[in-house]
Sequence to fold (155 residues):
Amino acid sequence: MTPALQAPVYLHANALVLGEFGLLLRGPAGAGKSTLTLQLVADWRARGAFAALVGDDRITLEACCGRLIARPHPSIRGMIEARGLGVLRVDSEPACVLRAVVDLLAFNESPERCPDTDQSRTELSGVILPRMSENAARVGAATRIGSYIQNLATN
Fold:
């Protein structure tokens, strides 16, 4: 028996692939989702690892077989907005399986030093994923996210 697919959910978020790791960046407008996406992709590629945008700004989520699939909005696939530069065309992937969520905070907020266990997970479309909070404006945000991903991948 084939499991039923749920209807897609649309989010204001970015999705990207770092190595084999699908990541969703959520946050308010102006929180730095696109800038951080570009930085993470560039950092991973500089190390010789695969990295690509899946989608910028509008992401479709679809739960299937206990996994959460992220896809870009078709009208803006392969495009990302870079403040001060406009819309850029970049290499992209058509979809990814999400393995974690990063919630970006407003620029005047900081993540909790030691978040509660219940804050370390989030549920989207019936799928529970590991979650962290970060402020994209803080020095080292991309490094902390990279460390978080590597820690999840080895556990």
